Structures are given as C-alpha cells and as structure tokens.
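Pipeline run #58 for the internal structure catalog. This entry was flagged by the ingest filter as a single-chain record with no existing model, so it goes straight to prediction. Upstream metadata was stripped on purpose; only the residue string is passed forward. Reviewer on rotation: M.T. Logging verbosity set to normal.
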Amino acid sequence: MELSQIIPHIEALIFASDKPLSTLELVDLINNALGFIEDKATLDQVESAIEAIREKYDSEFYAFEMKESGGGWQFLTKKEYHKTIAQLNADKYLKKLSTASLETLSIIAYKQPITKSEIENIRGVNCDYAVQKLLEKELVIIAGRNEDAVGKPLIYTTSKSFMDYFGINSPEDLPKIKEVLMEELVEATKINNEEESAEEKQEEPVTETEEPIDNLQ
C-alpha cells in the first residue's frame, strides 16, 4: 500500500478519536477499514506515514502538531497558542493545583508505584486531602495494593490523563531530577551574576568632566 493512501486515513483517525491512538492501533484500524484491499498496511509503512505527517504539521503555517502523548498519537495545539484557546475552554482546563497537591503529584510521578504512607514519610505531613484531589482530577490512579506491606495499603501511580496533560508519553519521559536541579542551579547563578553586575555598575565612581571653555559663563 502506498504512503499516499495511508496518510489521509491516519489523519482522519487521529482527528476523530477521543483518545490517543498507538501505532499498532492505527495499523489495525487502517487494515480493518480497507479490508477489501489485499495489499495490507505494514507497521513500517504506518511508522513512515506518521513521520511524514509530523514533518508536515511541524511547519509554522499550522497552529497544531501531531505528537505522541498519553500513550498514543494526537493532534495537539502548539504551545504558543495555548493561551489563545484557553479563552474558549477555560472551564475544561484543570484548576491550578495547590502547593501541597503539586508536591504530592511530583512524589508520585517520580516514586511510583507508591503508597500514601510512603508519600507522607517523604513530605512529613498528612496527604489525605492532596491525594483525594489528585484522584478527583484523574491525575493519579489507584493501581492496586502492596501485598508485601502490613495491611496491604493502596498504591498510586500517575494516569494517562497526567501524561496527556503534561505532554509526555510515559513516566520515563519526565525530566531527570538531576537535570531539574542543574537547570535551577544555572538559573540561580544567572540571576546572581545579573544582580552582582547591577551592583557593580551602581558602585562605579562617576568621573566628572570639565565643560568646554566656550560654555563657561
């Protein structure tokens, strides 16, 4: 099957789907739709078609792009237009998370699977309310129980909604903690250097210059 045949079907499927579609799902859906054709689409062909579509929508002429996020492929608005469309969908966007919820979500994201008591040991405070809010917002899910721990407590992991919201395809795509700390260190050093430079300019002695003789009264 030619790529020119496959590409529009992939675009239509991703556009119409209410959830991310994986590459394998796209292969099956295309072949089911074109079942009367003996020349089936292969995984390699679909992957090549996906790459061609990605390159197409990477152009500055399009306000959206095709991106692998939340476990599959989606059409997503490019980040420079997020504030624009937020005006139309403000009620659908997640409300701002509290500091406690953000801290709890970060711990779950980097330590998952994790129990609530383990989260509390790291934070040092009770996290019942924060975990409940994250469950309500569907950013985390209950993934089972820790059968080896006393009482078999519930264990928590991030959800597909979390990956979709933050634009990643799996927890492995999260920035490494060392990278985050290094970025903070670089930013702090940059700010300190700018402040020191400003202070040095303020402390520079002002050199008085004599006016030309013609200007003297």
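catalog note: Residues 113 and 156 are 5 Å apart (CA to CA).
catalog note: The mean pLDDT is 79.
status: ready for reviewer M.T.
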